[in-house]
Amino acid sequence: ALGYLAWNETRLLAAAGVVRSTFDRDWRMASATAQATVGRLEGFGVEVSEGDATVALAGHETEFDVAAMLDDRLRAHLGGRSLSDSLGAHVTLETAEARTDSIAMALVRPAHLDLSPDRLAIDDLEIRSDDARIAAHGVIDRRGDQDFRLEIENLSTGFLSAALGRESLSGTVNGDLTLSGPAAAPQGSGSVDVDLVSGDRPVGVLRS
User: Tens of pLDDT along 156-169?
Assistant: First the structure.
């Protein structure tokens, strides 16, 4: 257990953790499980009031489950598994949720991601609420061809407002972005509209 730790502008007020592992007869680690709890973490403009994480390793496969409450307003939960090989990490997201008092978004179905130093591939990532949708699909490759699309529909800024502690700021985000072409000359297109309200008064619309 850890009572208090400070470094620059980052402060960890309480934490505890447990690690368990098993070894084969040649004293090579066969599996391991780590559990950690954070009481309060402040830094980088974000305050985590509580958090729990569990990570289990067995061979080349890792299972993870992470939950956190940000500033008592936003609760997030992420869970899944990852398999590593010579090409990188192959991640299956099985749970992805974010909730405030008025908004709840969740992963529609398990999504698959391939991660390597030069390549990101996302297969059918879709997160929805009753009114909003975020979807990502395709490939970003620093050494090959790009074929990526990100769609945002009626996304409330409430999650960002909660994370930053700016409850008076609200609004919606809509966007459709694509990336295509070879790595040497990628082409991006699309648009993003942000409609902001502060204290029930329109602030304006940002377009790009």
Answer: 876 666 555 566 66
What residues have CB less than 8 Å from 26, skipping those under 6 apart? Answer: none
- What does each C-alpha distance from 35 to 48, 53, 83, 111, 201 come to in angstroms? 17, 6, 20, 24, 45
User: How far apart are the C-alpha atoms of 39 and 17, rounded to whole Å?
Assistant: 11
Whole-structure pTM value = 0.78
State the Cα–Cα distance between residues 156 and 153, nearest whole angstrom: 9
Query: What is the number of residues in the chain?
Result: 208
What pLDDT was estimated at residue 190?
94
- The 3-state DSSP class for residue 142 equals coil
| Residue 60 · residue 84 · CB < 8 Å | yes
DSSP alpha helix (H) spans, the chain: 158-164
Helices vs strands, H then E, count in the chain: 1, 15
